């Protein structure tokens, strides 16, 4: 996932730079004081010259708008936490195609199954692979075998004698 940017803090930094420009400080010196690249300070100065302090205001996050509202995201998360059984599936295993269908059914938004994992990661879910267990597994017999049979099989040779006199 990409780095989250604090747009409010970035705007504050640009406005501090604008106050320095008002005092007549050169862009190269502003760059040094603000610990940014000179090119950035020159771009801020050009923007400030053309539009003043308002031109340096944050325009918010870039990129495509979110497909879901906050309530829709909560609805999907709640359904995921209820489990696949509550959604009518026979097995307790979420797969990307299942999650894509769930999203479509709950929100009307179509998500490609191959991209669902990005959304799940952003929501804090991680990939969990279930352990495979035989249906015929008998826990009592297994614990008995571990207690009784395995120690007999595993027994090693008695340690060799290290006496000086044989």
Structure description:
Among the domains are: 49 residues, Arc Repressor Mutant, subunit A; 53 residues, no CATH class. Helix content is 54%, strand content 0%. The chain is mostly helical and 166 residues long. The radius of gyration is 31 Å and the shape is elongated. The chain starts with 6 loop residues before the first helix and ends in a 12-residue tail after the last helix. Helix 2 packs across helix 3.
- Kindly state the percentage of residues in helix: 40-55%
Shape: elongated
Low-confidence stretches: none
Please state the CA-atom Rg, rounded to the nearest Å: 31 Å
Alpha-beta classification: mainly alpha
Biggest β-sheet description: none
| CA distance, first residue to last residue | 70 Å
Please trace the helix and strand order, writing H or E for each element: HHHHHHH
Number of strands: 0
What's the topology here?
Blueprint: H1 7-22, H2 27-34, H3 38-55, H4 70-82, H5 96-107, H6 116-122, H7 139-154
Tags for this model:
166 residues; mainly alpha; Arc Repressor Mutant, subunit A; elongated
Structure in a nutshell:
This protein has helices spanning 7-22, 27-34, 38-55, 70-82, 96-107, 116-122, 139-154.
